[in-house]
């Protein structure tokens, strides 16, 4: 059935559930609200004939297991060792979001960075350079505006390469 | 949008030389401990040096004392470099890495523009204006909900009581079951119970619409921020207010939302307070009772109940902090305020639809089931000479059962078997209170001369009624802000069957203070156990001991609250 497991990780309220719904065609509850997803949810993504299982993890600022949701996210990434972790970042608050990225890198997980809400970042005068990120970290970096459906095709293409 | 492709193999961040040396040492040691193969070795080494106690306990279980020895040896060698602040050094180096990374991948404008979001927040989260704005928005939500949904409620009610009951009766006659107890079960048990609850679908649609707008726009997170200052000054954790706001929709997800809190004690404390936040399922009871006893101020009464719920939650929280949960300082509250976003129609619709669909599902499962049980208990006579399904309701098994607990409610002004019975079944779900009230106060409407109409006429009537309701609802909107386009048509003065029966019931049990008794009843409904599912969630999250603490505590508080309203009101001469 499913040939690999992918995880969606990121800070709270960066659009993980929006991306999850867009990829899986499911309708998980989305809210402009940090902490909507307190349990991990699963769905399936079809990428050029392959079926991948996508797990939406609760949003966390770090991988230190202080609260139950941080522990859920961490245990999943460390113990289940998904094929890749799609790390969703709020492009408008990039630096703070990158702390989790640093910790994810330390787990040795294969990352796909998604700089979501690129439209908001642009409207605040921020200029993103995803190439610099992917050169530094050695993983794909995709700019996205998930609520407008922009960047999803690029993410799917990145999944094809797995 | 652009994709940048891979250039280098994974190049994780490097720490300073002494730390890297110890990481290498630990990774090599871990390799000799087979139990630790489940963890990425370098990650485990970093976490343990950083002082992650949960993980250390887990790893020690797997690897035994060899791990502890290796870790202590590493720590001892790092001591001269970093003293007791190794964890700080690690976090600091990670931040430096992140800062450098952000510097390379992001160019900031010289002067950060003050966004519209910031400007709205200057007003909405203002030190003094914040709470009044929050209360005003809530008031708007509930007024909108009751005013706009009102005409639709009447329409659904007409459809269920008229054509639907007519069709059911006709169908039963066709198969030869007309005028039998089966007709009673279907029309008075199932249709009355379930229908009585389904009537409130428009109210809930409006409520969930308003909540979806507030949540998706980002305002709800501000409400938590605004309330934090108040909660903090009372010694409560501000983060607790987030699950509490979720509780406006439904208590069950709110109990699960306590998982966002850092300590188990904060989680339990918040889990105990969440049920006081008035959930959507309680709204039908408010609307029914308020429409009967306070037709002119229904919106105000309902708003008052919601505020009472918040006040009781905060008060109970303070009390618990100083007793059961003594001696834990409230941690500082850090909440990221999401930017304001224009709610998307699809997002709002999904939320409305999901929550309302859950309500409808509940109507034909739990509520239908309970209605049938109540109908059966009402049909079985245990006194007098009536036979099955043909005896005065006061002689039924249900009345006898409920009559047993009426003394508990007598001091609160609603010690009748009908209300006691409704509160008993209300433990299952709050909507059931409405269903049971309708069933127990059922008056023989003297075969309301349902004129023989054809199917086509019925359908036309339903559609026409819907259009009229839409018109009325639109006319009601300006009324909320003070204009009354609909013209002050007084509600029909002659109380309809159910309305009159409930009015008489409350008047009899309260010694004439029926409005006070109705208010006390609403306060009781607000404060006691929300539903079986919430109880199950509390048990799942906090264990049976806290579940019982919660059930008993809520019952006592509900009883006291209702007592204060009823007896206090009487003392004041209301």
Automatic annotation (TrEMBL), chain A:
Q: Which InterPro entries match?
A: FeoB_GTPase, G_FEOB_dom, GTP-bd, P-loop_NTPase
Q: Which Pfam families match?
A: FeoB_N
Cross-referenced CDD domains: FeoB
Q: What is one cellular component GO term in this UniProt entry?
A: plasma membrane
Report the subcellular localization.
Cell inner membrane
- Cross-referenced SUPFAM superfamilies: P-loop containing nucleoside triphosphate hydrolases
UniProt domain FeoB-type G: residue ranges: 3-162
Its keywords, alphabetically, are:
Cell inner membrane, Cell membrane, GTP-binding, Ion transport, Iron, Iron transport, Membrane, Nucleotide-binding, Transmembrane, Transmembrane helix, Transport
Q: How does it sit in the membrane?
A: Multi-pass membrane protein
Q: Which GO terms fall under molecular function for this chain's record?
A: ferrous iron transmembrane transporter activity; GTP binding
Q: What is this protein called?
A: Fe(2+) transporter FeoB
Please tell me the species this chain comes from.
Candidatus Viridilinea mediisalina
Q: What is the lineage of its organism?
A: Bacteria, Bacillati, Chloroflexota, Chloroflexia, Chloroflexales
Automatic annotation (TrEMBL), chain B:
- Primary place of residence? membrane
Membrane topology of this protein:
Multi-pass membrane protein
In this chain the FeoB cytosolic helical domain maps to 15-106
The record ties this protein, via InterPro entries, to: Fe2_transport_prot-B, Fe2_transport_prot_B_C, FeoB_Cyto, FeoB_GTPase, Gate_dom
Signal peptide location in the record? Answer: none
GO terms (molecular function) for this protein are: ferrous iron transmembrane transporter activity; GTP binding
Cellular component terms (Gene Ontology): plasma membrane
Q: Which top-rank group of organisms is this from? A: Bacteria
Q: Which NCBIfam families match?
A: feoB (TIGR00437)
Report the protein's function. Probable transporter of a GTP-driven Fe(2+) uptake system.
Query: Which named protein is this?
Result: Ferrous iron transport protein B
Species for this entry: Candidatus Viridilinea mediisalina
């Amino acid at each position: 059935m499913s040939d690999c497991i992918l995880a969606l990780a990121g800070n709270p309220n960066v659009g993980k559930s929006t991306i999850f719904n867009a990829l899986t065609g499911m309708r998980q509850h989305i809210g402009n609200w940090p902490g909507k997803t307190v349990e991990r949810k699963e769905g399936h993504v079809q990428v050029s004939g392959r079926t991948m299982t996508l797990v939406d993890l609760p949003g966390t600022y770090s991988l230190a297991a202080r609260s139950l949701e941080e522990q859920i996210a961490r245990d999943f990434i460390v113990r289940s060792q998904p094929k890749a972790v799609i790390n969703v970042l709020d492009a408008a608050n990039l630096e703070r979001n990158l702390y989790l990225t640093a910790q994810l890198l330390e787990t040795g997980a294969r990352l796909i960075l998604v700089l979501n809400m690129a439209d908001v970042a642009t409207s605040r005068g921020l200029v993103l350079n995803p190439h610099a990120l992917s050169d530094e970290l050695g993983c794909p970096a995709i700019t996205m505006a998930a609520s407008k459906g922009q960047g999803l095709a690029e993410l799917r293409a990145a999944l094809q390469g797995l | 949008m652009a994709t940048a492709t891979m250039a280098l193999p994974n190049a994780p961040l490097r720490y300073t030389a002494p730390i890297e040396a110890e990481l290498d040492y630990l990774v090599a040691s871990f390799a000799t401990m087979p139990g630790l193969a489940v963890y990425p070795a370098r990650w485990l080494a970093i976490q343990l040096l950083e002082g992650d106690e949960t993980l250390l306990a887990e790893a020690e279980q797997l690897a035994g004392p060899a791990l502890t020895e290796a870790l202590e040896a590493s720590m001892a060698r790092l001591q001269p470099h970093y003293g007791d602040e190794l964890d700080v050094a690690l976090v600091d180096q990670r931040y430096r890495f992140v800062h450098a990374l952000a510097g390379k991948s992001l160019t900031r404008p010289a002067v950060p523009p003050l966004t519209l979001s910031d400007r709205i927040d200057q007003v909405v989260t203002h030190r003094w204006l914040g709470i009044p704005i929050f209360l005003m928005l809530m008031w708007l939500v509930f007024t909108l909900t009751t005013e706009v949904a009102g005409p639709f409620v009447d329409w659904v009610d007409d459809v269920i009581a008229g054509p639907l009951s007519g069709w059911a009766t006709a169908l039963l006659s066709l198969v030869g079951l007309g005028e039998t107890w089966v007709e009673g079960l279907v029309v008075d048990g199932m249709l009355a119970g379930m229908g009585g609850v389904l009537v409130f679908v428009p109210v809930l649609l409006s409520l969930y619409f308003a909540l979806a707008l507030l949540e998706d726009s980002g305002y709800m997170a501000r409400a938590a921020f605004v309330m934090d200052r108040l909660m903090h000054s009372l010694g409560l954790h501000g983060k607790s207010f987030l699950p509490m706001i979720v509780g406006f929709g439904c208590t069950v997800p709110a109990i699960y939302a306590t998982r966002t809190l850092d300590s188990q004690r904060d989680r339990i404390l918040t889990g105990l307070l969440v049920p006081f936040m008035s959930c959507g399922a309680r709204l039908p009871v408010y609307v029914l009772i308020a429409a009967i006893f306070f037709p002119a101020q229904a919106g105000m009464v309902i708003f008052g109940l919601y505020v009472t719920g918040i006040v009781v939650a905060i008060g109970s929280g303070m009390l618990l902090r100083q007793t059961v949960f003594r001696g834990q300082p409230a941690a500082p509250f850090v909440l990221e305020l999401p930017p304001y976003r224009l709610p998307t129609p699809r997002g709002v619709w999904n939320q409305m639809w999901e929550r309302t669909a859950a309500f409808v599902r509940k109507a034909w499962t739990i509520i239908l089931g309970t209605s049938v049980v109540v109908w059966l208990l009402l049909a079985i006579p245990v006194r007098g000479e009536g036979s099955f399904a043909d005896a005065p309701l006061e002689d039924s098994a249900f009345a006898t059962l409920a009559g047993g607990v009426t003394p508990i409610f007598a001091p609160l002004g609603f010690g009748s078997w009908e209300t006691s019975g409704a509160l008993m079944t209300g433990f299952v779900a709050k909507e059931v209170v409405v269903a049971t009230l309708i069933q127990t106060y059922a008056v023989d409407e003297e075969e309301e001369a349902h004129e023989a109409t054809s199917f086509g006429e019925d359908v036309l009537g339903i559609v026409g009624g819907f259009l009229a309701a839409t018109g009325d609802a639109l006319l009601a909107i300006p009324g909320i802000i003070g204009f009354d386009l609909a013209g002050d048509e007084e509600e029909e003065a002659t109380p309809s069957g159910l309305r009159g029966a409930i009015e008489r019931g409350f008047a009899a049990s309260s010694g004439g203070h029926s409005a006070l008794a109705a208010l006390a009843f609403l306060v009781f409904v607000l404060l006691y156990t929300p539903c079986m599912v919430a109880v199950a969630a509390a048990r799942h999250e906090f264990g049976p001991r806290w579940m019982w603490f919660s059930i008993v505590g809520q019952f006592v508080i509900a009883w006291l609250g209702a007592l204060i309203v009823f007896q206090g009101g009487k003392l004041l001469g209301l």
